[in-house]
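Q&A log
Question type: sequence-to-structure
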Amino acid sequence: MLENKLLRIIDANLNRAREGLRVCEDIARFSLENKSVTKSLKATRHSATDLILKSKKISLAGLLSGRDISSDKTKFIDFRPGEETGISDIFMANIERVKESLRVLEECFKPVDEKISRGYRKLRFDAYDIEKSVVKKAGLISCNR
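Response status: OK
Response body:
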């Protein structure tokens, strides 16, 4: 049985990655109106979940059962947006969050399942490519980053 603390890290980072991808996906869809980027972000979001579903040692139900929101002392620590925060800043903050979370998932799966770890590494590099594409195509550059 996997250590509960490792499961909590995986659960938090899977949620963080999927949430960040969804924010970026909606910006690509509604603000940038870029169908190909929207599709790439959606595919990456679904792939992040699909990798867990392929695991023989971890399930979504198992992650949910180990979730302990009430004892999470830092759950309400938020960033404070500046006056200049706009769509570009929101996209860039969330794509960074996605890349960081995918890296944590990659590392946490190394002792659990090397194939799934490599899958998260691929998704992380996909996120790098998506970020570059958005910055290049949309001229999306943050003033604050």
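Response note: The mean pLDDT is 88.
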